[in-house]
Every structure is written in structure tokens, then in C-alpha cells.
Design goal:
- By secondary structure, this protein is an alpha/beta fold.
- The chain folds into 2 domains: 114 residues, Tetrapyrrole methylase, N-terminal domain (Cobalt-precorrin-4 Transmethylase, domain 1); 111 residues, Tetrapyrrole methylase, C-terminal domain (Methyltransferase, Cobalt-precorrin-4 Transmethylase, Domain 2), CATH 3.30.950.
- It is built from 9 helices and 10 strands.
- The strands form 2 sheets. The protein has a 5-stranded parallel beta sheet with strand order 3-2-4-1-5, with helices on one face. Strands 6-7-10-8-9 form a 5-stranded mixed beta sheet.
Length: 234
């Protein structure tokens, strides 16, 4: 079986192509006629930005997002099994982290299909390596509970694991709820715990700042509608 599933990272900000995207990625993408994407509009915009020239009416797009029935995605692998390679695109950054692409990759492995991750930006890893926190023992939790009480309980649990396990805790939030997340962190965590806020990674207005909760309480900032990765450590 020669068909391959390529995991294609996309831009996280309005960056220059050469700054975040290896030339080899473009060569591979230009050879593909089928993609699995979260949203059709943003996928097409990304492809045109990197110079993809094929007419979209000749390209097959399969949708895989939170509304997709996961019992039906096996059909997306049909052409892979028939030796035609396919690209899996994320909405932003690398695929399969906090998105449903991992379910497709699991099926690919079960069917003996080769999975090839392409090099590109990942906000989670870039935030971690820039935080100064423990990069040997860390956990990514995705989204924390929305309910205020449950969120505080979860933050208390994460803080406990920082000191008990020497473990960096990483999570994200929907951008319009960022400020409420910061308020919850500053309320739930002790003043000596360290918080890193990594915002708009790879953008010109990128901000990555690590400091104690006591310092954040003096000036929490405004993170509304900005993509942010939150990290907690000691």
C-alpha cells in the first residue's frame, strides 16, 4: 500500500511563508488532490497562500470537525487504501492536537496506512519551550471546564500536580473567554505558582511572558480574542 496520510500544519498567524513553513511541505502538498479539513473556506485560503495552483473543482475536500459523525470517517480512507495520498489539515498549527484529526490517524494505523507528520508550527510545544518550565514532564489538558466552580476545582488539581509531580500543566481556552480564564487562575492558584501566557505565537504581536501569580495579579493584561496557551509551573 503506497498511499500516505500527510499531517499538514497550517499558519497560526499572518506570517511569511518562509518563516514557519518548510519548502518541502509545499512540494508534497502541491502533489495532492485530496484533503481532509476542518473548514473548507480556511483550507482553501491556506492552500492558495502557499501557492497551490490546482482548480478547486478538481480537488476533493472531506470535512472533519466537531460536527462530523466519527462513524463515517472510515470512508475518508478509501483512496488511501487505493494508493492515493491524502493531506490532513488543521485550522491552525499542527493537526491532531485538540481537534478530531487524531481519530482519523488512529484508523489509518489500524488499516496499515503510513502516517507522515510534516514539520511546522505547534503552539503547544512552542509555548512550552519558551516558558522556561519543565519540558521533560508536562501534560496538555486541552480545554478546562466552563462551569466556574468546576474550573476552580480543576485549576486546584492542576496546581497540586505541579508540586507533587514536578509537572508543567498546559491548557487552552476559547479566545473570547481568555480574560475569565485569567481571573480564575489568579483566584485559584497560590501567589508563588508561575503562570506563562503565550499569545499570538508566530505573529508580529506575539507575547510570551512567565512570572509568578503575585506579579500577574498586579497587571493581568487584556487577552480577549487572542489565541493563548496557558502554562502553570513552580
Amino acid at each position: 500500500m503506497s498511499g500516505k496520510l500527510y499531517l499538514i500544519p497550517t499558519f497560526m498567524a499572518d506570517s511569511e511563508i518562509g518563516e514557519v513553513f518548510p519548502e518541502n511541505n509545499r512540494s508534497i502538498i502541491f502533489s495532492l488532490n485530496e484533503f481532509i479539513v476542518e473548514e473548507l473556506k480556511t483550507a482553501r485560503r491556506f492552500l492558495r497562500k502557499i501557492g497551490y495552483q490546482k482548480p478547486f473543482e478538481e480537488v476533493k475536500f472531506n470535512i472533519l470537525n466537531e460536527h462530523t459523525d466519527l462513524t463515517e470517517i472510515g470512508a475518508y480512507l478509501k483512496n488511501l487504501i487505493n494508493d492515493s495520498s491524502i493531506g490532513l489539515l488543521s485550522e491552525a498549527g499542527s493537526p491532531c492536537i485538540a481537534d478530531p484529526g487524531s481519530e482519523l490517524v488512529k484508523l489509518a494505523h489500524q488499516n496499515g496506512i503510513r502516517v507522515i507528520p510534516l514539520v511546522g508550527p505547534s503552539s503547544i510545544l512552542m509555548a512550552l519551550i519558551a516558558s522556561g518550565f519543565n519540558g521533560q514532564n508536562f501534560v496538555f489538558h486541552g480545554y478546562l471546564p466552563i462551569d466556574k466552580k468546576q474550573r476552580i476545582q480543576k485549576l486546584t488539581e492542576l496546581e497540586r500536580n505541579i508540586y507533587k509531580l514536578d509537572q508543567t500543566q498546559i491548557f487552552i481556552e476559547t479566545p473570547y473567554r481568555n480574560n475569565r480564564m485569567v481571573e480564575a487562575i489568579l483566584s485559584a492558584c497560590s501567589r508563588e505558582t508561575a503562570l506563562c501566557i503565550a499569545s499570538n505565537i508566530t505573529a508580529k504581536d506575539e507575547i510570551i511572558t512567565s512570572k509568578k501569580i503575585s506579579e500577574w495579579r498586579k497587571s493581568p493584561g487584556d487577552w480577549n480574542k487572542r489565541p493563548v496557551v496557558f502554562l502553570l509551573f513552580k
